[in-house]
Amino acid sequence: MKTDVAVIGTGLSALAAARTIQQSGRQVVLVWPGLSSLYFLFATVDVIGYPTATSTEPVADPAEAVARLITREPTHPYARAGIDAVHASTRLMLEWFKEAGLAWEGALNRNFLLPTATGTPKPCCLAPASMTAGDLSRPEPIVLCGFTGYRDFAPELAASNLERQWGAAAVSAVRVTAPGYGPDRLFTSVDLARSFEDATFRDAVAAELRERVGDGVRIGVPGVLGLTRPNETFAAFQRAVGHPIFEIPTVPPSVIAPRLFDRLRKHLQEAGIEIIWAAPGHAAEVTDGRCRSILLKAAGHELPVEAAAYVVALEDWVDGAFRAGVHTVRDPFFHQPIAWNKVPTDRTAESLFSTQPFEQVGYALTDRLQPADENGKPLARNVFCAGGAMAGYDPTGTKSRGGMAIATGYRAAQEALAA
Amino acid sequence: MITEEFEPTTDTVEEEASVEACTKCTACNTVCPVARSTDIFRGPKALGPDMERFRSPQEAAVTPGLDLCSGCKLCEVTCPSQVSIQEYIRRAQNQGAREKGRSLRDWVLGRTRLLGKLGSMTAPLANFGNRNPLFRVLMERFVGIHRRRPLPKYQWLTFERWFKRHPRPVNSRRKVAYFYGCWVNYNDRRLGERAVAILERNGIEVVVPHQQCCGIPAVVNSNMDLARRYGRQNVRHLTPLAEEMDIVASSTSCGLMLKHDYGHLLDIPGSERLGAKTYDIMEYLWMLHEAGELDTDFQTVPMRLLYHAPCHLKSHGIGYPAMRLLRLIPGVHLEEVDEGCCGISGTFGVKVEKYDLSMKIGSRLFEAVKAAGSDYVLADCETCRMQVEHGAGATSAHPLEILAKAYGHG
Q: Which of B76, B82, B323 sits opposite A320 (nearest CB)?
């Protein structure tokens, strides 16, 4: 099939790229080999939480911190995207969230400090409005609320960690019963989220919670307030409890991610963007330095997608990007061995929590974000790379998950439009 | 520790993801329409890759709740690691049925062609029975078909017999073989007539080869052995034709069986050649269009249409060719109703114990369809159409019907 620009990927970088291209009036097709980790991990757009991977002092002004990072590390994905793309992509997403009916808050000149499910303060730049009352810079005491039998959020653990790590206001824990969910039942965030859309269930939980907490507190609950109608569910629950409520993202399956993802996906489809599901990349046909088509592995046969330009916005390991053999890592389009160390044990660090070398794997790039060969020449002039498939893309240490994705997605889309 | 000296001679990068590729990310559980609608289902992750580690071909580890998987394959569509989640569930289901035996109902539902033969032979009687409340109560009681589920109407004149009397076109640029499937043959001959008319209008001679049920009803009724038998017959009948011409299917799920599941799920030898030449009919027509060979001399069709993409269409990996085609027709106002699985999943929503669940899964879709108010809800899959008509009281059609209208057929 033919289109102006094909965007390959399902994560935030792909979505930001698709939106950018769609707004320019060109035709976009989204190629989805499988969902990215956005779908189950993601909750907020973190532009930069810590100035370096090892620092412990959270960033107060993300725009300024990114500018400094760019000066310090000229090959960092933020540097490749450029500071203008960081600003433009943040504006793009905030406008988009609003247009799509998603209640989100945030700005590039400040970070929220929001509690995680284990009680760690985490700096993030853009967040759903249902989470921001948890900002730890606010003075009100916090009550963390769990549900009896629900294993994916332990309020006692989160409260003790928060008190120890943060300590400014009183944090306590409470567990209430979720009607119909006993300790003998195995259930997840998805089940609870569905139940919270039911008014009877919601009011019963709210009634018990109201009795168990004192005045003047804000209440943190796991992010299960609604699956398909989160805005209404959150508002109704907060009203019924009578205290400020904030959601805390849970371990996968986190419901907060599907809410965002499903809405943005639908919004793109409403705008006439077609999605090709379940079609991993297979090969790129390159002649005279230009990619003429990419071949997708559809059921039974190959599906060629011909476009004037391509944005490869895959993650590095999930969603059908790279495949690792014992000594080489290969990409699905150019079948180039990704230049990288040959010893398998060098791919991982001893400590689970340190920066993992395999996260750095990705396409070497030109200044225009084109995947490059070992001499720095583009493999194809009209292919541009964003997100996790870029070499050196590791958002974990600096807490830049989401921010790096939208900035590079936006920049790659701009390059694709200019190609 | 592996050092530089350790150099194996080959460096294989596996093309197909194995069960080990599952990272336990739970994306499948989050999208699974059944898991989203009930908490008695433990989700595709637990029943597929998790349990698969405890299964061996010699020894069955049959997990309760396997029958709640409706077979929509959305888990596979969304899996970030491209794990064949559904196939593990299907194999285990089949193993369980082999050990415990199948119910009469599942035995019957797996044999759509037999049902179709009986139904069309006794068409007026069968249709009367299928609409008779007393008969339906008895059917629910003794067979396990839910009394409120409307059953498809059978027609006396099958597509096969209609086609035998259909005159061949005089001039044609090429030939294509039509896999019409049980639905067109026994329940909706009109759709087949439309398919033939549209292809002939574009200078293509339609060949209707001898064919068996594609096998998907047998697969979802835990009878992979029967499905494999059907599949082998189809591979035998169709592969020689596939050397000379393309094969088109007008049912999403039949097409997916031919393209993909014969090889991947049923391990039928030689099926890859057939799969490589099989196209969904809308996919095929779009290819004609891109090659500049589709007659786009359309009449205006002033209609408000909603398109529901069947789950199995997503598994084809071809996008939504029906939407692209219909947007070429002047007057058509087309929107996608993007509310996920309709819930019927072939014979799943027909069963007495699954009917309510099936309606619950589809409830979001029904609401959206009712709210949108359109002339037709379009879907490429016949059971999706049945479900939308039943759940939302809407009129539904295959996208081909609209294309036929644009060509001046009714």
A: B82
